[in-house]
Design a protein that fits this description.
- With 230 residues, this protein is α/β, with parallel strands linked by helices.
- It has one domain: Vaccinia Virus protein VP39 (Rossmann fold, 3-Layer(aba) Sandwich).
- It is 32% helix and 25% strand.
- It contains 6 helices and 11 strands.
- The strands form 3 sheets. It has a 7-stranded mixed beta sheet with strand order 5-4-3-6-9-11-10, with helices on both faces. Strands 1-2 form a two-stranded antiparallel ribbon.
- Strand 3, helix 3 and strand 4 form a beta-alpha-beta unit.
- Helix 2 runs parallel beside helix 3.
Length: 230
């Protein structure tokens, strides 16, 4: 697997420290971001998919998967876990999925609902407040999307829960099989700039089949989208 050059990572962190005041201003107000030409309203306390590239890679990977057949004449179902701005939900709905979007952050739930409305997708997207699979117990989904917190630790705020968690890798992997039908797939994006090892360890201790769906080297980090199947 390709490796990240330590010098490049150091330069990237130096550049981030220079840009931090600008980013804080951008993150501290309501903005409109464009992801692959799709406008998304982002509220101040919500993970920004225009600045942080993991959501973009995840929805690009989703577009490479053939749309599965839903039950009867219904559209296939997708779960956008940790929806944030609703980027995964909006892109999945535009592809033809009926989407349930979930987030533990109340501001993210508001934001995702706003974006469903602005794209006239409110009939295809339902947004629920809650932790991981708690709001969708007993439901099954043809596709599960997750852009998880990359770092270990206790979140300091609702927004910080998009970055940090105590035990999300273990709880997500344990709960996933019950949410997938036999032909279902989960797409999960991880970065070398985070606790990727904890996720891979959780994968190895589960009955799930795991493969790499997409990989992109950004110079300072490598992101992979993993496909998980029962």
């Amino acid at each position: 697997m390709p490796r990240v050059n330590p010098a490049v990572r150091w330069l990237s962190r130096l550049g981030y420290s220079v840009l931090r005041p600008y980013l804080r201003r951008r993150l501290g107000r309501t903005v409109v971001e464009h992801v692959d030409g799709v406008p998304l309203i982002v509220l101040p306390q919500v993970f920004n998919p225009g600045i942080f590239r993991s959501g973009r890679l995840l929805v690009q990977a989703l577009a490479t998967i053939p749309l599965p057949a839903g039950p009867g004449s219904q559209a296939p179902r997708a779960l956008d876990m940790g929806t944030g701005s609703g980027i995964g939900a909006v892109f999945a709905a535009r592809l033809g999925y009926r989407v349930t979007a979930v987030d533990i952050n109340p501001e993210a739930v508001r934001c995702a609902r706003i974006n469903a409305l602005q794209h006239h997708l409110e009939e295809q997207i339902e947004v629920r407040l809650g932790d991981l699979f708690d709001p969708v117990r007993s439901d099954r989904f043809d596709v599960v999307l997750f852009n998880p917190p990359f770092f270990r630790g206790q979140p300091r705020s609702a927004l910080d829960a998009a970055w940090r968690s105590v035990d999300v890798p273990e709880r997500f992997v344990a709960g996933l099989p019950a949410a997938l039908p036999p032909a279902g797939v989960a797409l999960l994006v991880l970065s070398t700039d985070g606790v990727q090892d904890a996720w891979l360890r959780a994968f190895s201790q589960s009955p799930l089949q795991v493969d790499v769906v997409a990989r992109q080297h950004f110079g300072n980090e490598i992101m992979c989208v993993y496909g998980l199947r029962r």
